[in-house]
Amino acid sequence: MNASVHHQRETMEFDIVIIGAGPAGLSAAIRLKQINPELSVTIVEKGTEVGAHILSGAVVDPIGIDTLLPEWRNENDHPFKTPVTSDQFFLLKPKNATVFPNILRPKILSNDGCYIVSLGNVCRWLSKKAEALGVEIYPGFAITEIIQNDNGAIIGVLTGDMGLEKNGTPGKNYMPGMALLAKYTLVAEGARGSIAKQLIQKFDLSKNREPQKFGLGLKELWEVDPQKHKLGLVQHFTGWPLDNRTGGGGFLYHQENNLVSAGFVVHLDYKNPYISPFEEFQRFKTHPQLYEIFKGAKRLSYGARVISEGGWQSVPKLTFPGGALIGCSAGFVNVPRIKGSHNAILSGILAADKIATALAQGRAHDEVKEIEEHWRKGPIGKDLYKVRNAKPLWEKFGTKYGIKLAGFDLWWQQLFGFSLFKTLSHTKADYECLEPAEKFQPIAYPKPDGIVTFDRLSSVALSHTHHEENQPCHLKVASLKKQKNSEYAIYGGPSTRYCPAAVYEWLDHNDQETYVINASNCIHCKTCDIKDPNQNINWTCPQGNEGPLYLNM
Fold it and tell me: What EC numbers are recorded for this enzyme (predicted)?
């Protein structure tokens, strides 16, 4: 949006506007107010409350929190209640499992000193810290556009209109969006955010970078029999039910109150269009190594979200005139460690430090290049650089050999300080990896038993997802003809399987295959925006205050 247009809207001005109340955005806000309490800092969050859209395992390395809030351990209300007490890694086969001895695992993969948490509750806790410092947090508002001045710099953002009818016209409860102007804007939307996507394209931030890679993470929260619960136990699994060429794996984390977080990740560079990540997750729970823990237990919550997996090679340029990308908007997940929140927090701190300095110098709307120049030399860069070849090796050699080669590479670096592989490249973008359906056989997934395994619609109900039905569809299909002639005719309609919320259907209507989009089911995972083989689906923000409401996730 051009700067002149925002004058037609109600306008508010701040020193810094932050998009997204996740770990990165909240940490940046806290750090800014720690440095200069007089700064006006606001966070805009599209979820109905802070933490509503936060989904993660999560086993957290406390290095970020230690840097941001060094005295947090002296407080009683912090959410880091469950230190890791035991750490196991299994290779699953259909009927048995092999445990990998911890002594053979490189030091960087250890979870010693880490905590099992609900990352949503961590964000709720951080939001209280931020508000106590004077940060203004506005949940329930989606950012839909960026505002540029005549020189092309970002000078603010626009919240989405509320109360539009399905045809895009104002309804009886219509409220136009507001213009939020700022000297600097920080983008902390999480993986594959819609504003970050716009900025990466507009400023060519991915130039000379490898394509970003993603995984789809699915999670359920269970209350289990106390006799089966082992507080602080962390278990990771790879192998079955995925085939050797499909990357991913699962986890069980035993946290307080007899709760167990069960999750499964499927790397989105898979080839077979008949794969359903949701169904693979359900199959995973039926393995003899896991099934017993779920018997007699109660499933409390469900959710799914994509994860940035490209790492060192794929992180885009962070800075642009008027702002920066932070957290998972940039892609700071350490894939072998299965951790990213520590780097998200550190990135928020880094951006805050550099922007506070720029503001103190009287700067505004320029490019704070110091953020980009520093991150690779600091703790985030050091963390990602060590594991830079793990994902490419897995891509190229599959699970059986890729994990072994990645382990060898990590050990070699631990012992000698360099990699024999130097820096490997990713093969291609995830959507380019999908192959025509004629090369594969459909997968006959077992029917859910309603005890341990479930269907997608009953699962979506546990995400507490809500969307106003009578609004424009936020899932934009550029060409329905291409969707039918390619996505359906060539690839067998993979959107009906890769979506973990049953949003997409191909239905027979008057002897014609019709594409049906159940947008109200959408849990904002962003998989369709990534995996559609023609990049024909564009995920955009629905009106604010919608989507999932994740509790204790």
Answer: 1.5.5.1
